[in-house]
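Please think about what follows:
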Amino acid sequence: MSSFHLPELAKQYTQYDMIRLHTEVPAFPEARSRLLLAFLHESGNAGKSAESLTLAVSLVQMGIDIHEMVSMSNQVKEKKAVRSRQLKVLAGDYFSSGYYHLLSEAGEIGMVEHIAGSICEVNRLKMTLYARIRQLKLTAEEYLQQMAGIRAQLFARFDHLMKSGLGKAWQDILECFTRCELLADELDQLGNPERLRESWAFWRMREQGYGELLGQLESSADKQEQINALMQKCRIKEQLLQLLDEQVGHLYEKARRLDSDRLMQELLQIGDPFLRLVRQPPAAGGAMR
C-alpha cells in the first residue's frame, strides 16, 4: 500500500462529528510518515507491519499536536470555547490511544513501550523549551533546533528497525526533513500575532535589536499591522526562504548519497513541495502571506 493511503486510514480514528464540530483536527504528518515508511520498506519491513507502525506513530503525533492547540488560559468562560478546549484534550488522548490497537493487531507489542518512552521524551523536551521561552533565553537557531528535535522525536527512535547502514542516514535525513517542515510552517504562519513568541521570527527579530518593541507589540491593540511592518523591515520572509533553500540543499545532498536509487527517488519526491516553495515567484508588491 502506498504511503499516500495512510492519511485516509487515519480518518477512521480522527474523523468523528463530535470532534470536527467543536475543534479543528491537526494535519496528518505526511512528510514524516512517508519518510518513515520508505525507510522501513527499504529495510525489509514491508506490508502491513510497516504501515501499522507508521500509522500508529502518526496518530500519536496528531494527538500531541491537538493538545498543543489547547488554550492555556483559565479565563475562557464562553460555552463554545470551553467545549472546544475539552474536545481538544479528549481528542488528543483518543488519537494517541489508537496506537495500542494498531500495534497489537500487527503483533508489535514491544513497540508500545518504545513509543510511550518517546512520548515522555517529547514532553520533557517541550517543558525545557517552554521554560526558556518564558525566560527569553533563546537564540533563533536554538529555537529552530529544539523545535525540529521535538517534531522528530517520535519518529527518530525507529532506527533500530533499519537495516545496517541505514540507521545513521535515517537520523540525518529525518533531521533535514523536520527542519524543512518547520521552516515551511513558519512561512505559512508568518505574521500570526497569536503565535508571535512561538515563532522563529520572534527570536530572530530580538537578535536584530527589536526585543523591547516586540514586548510592546504583544500587548498592542493593533499589533497585526505593526508586526507585519516590523517583519518586512527585518526581511524575515527572505531569511526564512534562504534557510529553507539551504536545508533543501542539505536534504537532496544526503538523499543522493544513499546506495538505493529507489529510496533516493522516493525521498526527492517527498521533498519536492519544499523545493517548490523555495522556487515560487515572490508575491506581488512583496506582500506577506
